Amino acid sequence: MKTIALTLLASALAVSLILYPRDALSASLRGLDLWWEIVFPSLLPFFITAEFLIGFGVVHGLGALSERFMRPLFNVPGCGGFVWVMGMASGYPSGAKWTADLRKKGQVTRAEAERLVAFTNASSPLFIFGAIAVGFFHDASLGILIAIAHYGGNFLVGIGMRFYKRNDQERSMDRASASWRDAFSKMHQSRLEDGRTLGKLMGDAVTRSVDTLLMVGGFIMLFSVLTELLKQTGAIHIFSHLLFYTGLPETFHVPFTAGMLELTTGIGAITETHEPLLAQLLIVSFILGFHGFSIQAQIASILAETDIRFKPYALARIAHGIVAAALIYVLYFVYRPFQQQSMPTWNPNENFTTPILEFFNHYGPPITLLMIMLMIAVKWNSERKAKKRSLRV
């Protein structure tokens, strides 16, 4: 039955692509624009920097110091502090990538990795403040409200996940009593064990980061096309009819369904409705916490290379969405008096943007192309050297 269902879905996708080629192409190009203008150039520096920090042993040294608060709070080793902070700064799916790297290196157990991946994947501040608050809501002050609810919800989910498999016998080594000298010694020892030269580390950092981001770009384009095809075929209305039983206003049905597939498209559609601001913020916060199936598919692809199970992460996403929406509801009544005192005046035809988004719009595509060409050159050089060594042997 599973084979039949998957075959029917793949066939339906192929037929839809044939029937709506123009719409599929435009949707794919929208996904490509988002990836090479914003996603790739904004995430690449974080990915490369993280590879350097892991290769130089900095993560292991900081992990020894972070053990004293990461273990009591989240029941994960200290190296999880690096994943948590960097995951919030760079946005999803960064947390999953670095959790998978730590698991491959044996720094975390399977249960610890499943706890860690559940709360280290969050939206980046650039996306919350630039794209959502300014770009969609046209009110920069809402960025603080959304960010507090989003990151606060992630923190509470992490606290809750500390009880996941708490009786598990396997546990990584504790370093609660590590001093700064012990941490530096651990960092030095990890760098020596890694053994890669600076040139080799730089090459690996570029190729691994670009490979991961190419996969992310493929998922963004795929789900952009799927969302558009569901709209064109009317199938999205079938799914949205299920929301009648939730009490959600009818104007939110289609945007919410689109957001469950790909959050950027859904959030944009939600902010275009004429529903009250609080209702829009509640739905947007839930979708941000849920991540959308596009991002969940990216994370599932990364975790598939390890023994980390996807189910704990998926359940944590539902919890994160609910907790973030609840925090928005509470915080909104604190924010509303300030919002009423200084109501933003804006022209719907005005182009709202930020200096950071302007930079990515202008320089994002050439940076993306340059780094892809650099990755190709590094891989070609590595293969050429490997062939020479094999010929000598």
UniProtKB/TrEMBL annotation:
Transmembrane segments: 42-62, 74-96, 116-137, 144-164, 212-230, 281-303, 315-335, 363-382
InterPro entries: Spore_IM_YlbJ
Record keyword Ribonucleoprotein present: no
Keyword Manganese: no
Residue ranges that the Swiss-Prot or TrEMBL entry lists as coiled coil: none
Domain of life, per lineage: Bacteria
UniProt KW keywords: Membrane, Transmembrane, Transmembrane helix
NCBIfam families xrefs: spore_ylbJ (TIGR02871)
Name of the protein in its database record: Sporulation integral membrane protein YlbJ
Source organism of this protein record: Halobacillus litoralis
Gene: ylbJ
